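__Record contents__

***
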Amino acid sequence: MKISFLTTVAAFALLAACSDNPAPDNAATEGVDQPAEIETAEAEPAPQGNQADQIMGPAAGMWDMDITAGGTQLPTTSICYDETLTLAEMERQQRQAGADCSKQDYRRDGAAIIGQSVCQMNGATIVVDQRITGDMQTRYRAEMVTTMDPPPAPGAGTQEMTIIATRTGDC
């Protein structure tokens, strides 16, 4: 149940993942082999304010996701996106999953996207701080720290997760 909950949190957190502005060619592999320290969206306010309205998700197609949650490598998961997801679509899917998000702040930090979501789901407050790198056309890496209050189990209030997603072709 804990893994299922983390996968749900990751799925709706990642749907807000990148910009419609092309990233440099090296962005697809930037940070893939080396984890980066995650900062929160509040740590350094964006000069232009929240940039979420400019953020797009992964390109349409079949994606393989390698997920490490709480130090455990999960089996590779494949997901098909019929179309490139927008922030508006992500928010709609979050509501359908029962999440009520009061905050969705994302900003660029060089080639990375730094974001924070604050949501209510199943009686818990879920805060997801994330750093996403990659081109969102062929590959991306998302590093997340999720804090749940109340925690789903003793000692499980804060979880770290890394997702490395690779586009494998059309659906």
About this structure: The beta strands are 18-19, 55-56, 61-69, 72-73, 77-81, 100-109, 112-121, 124-134, 139-149, 158-169. The chain has one domain: 2-169. The longest strand covers residues 158-169.
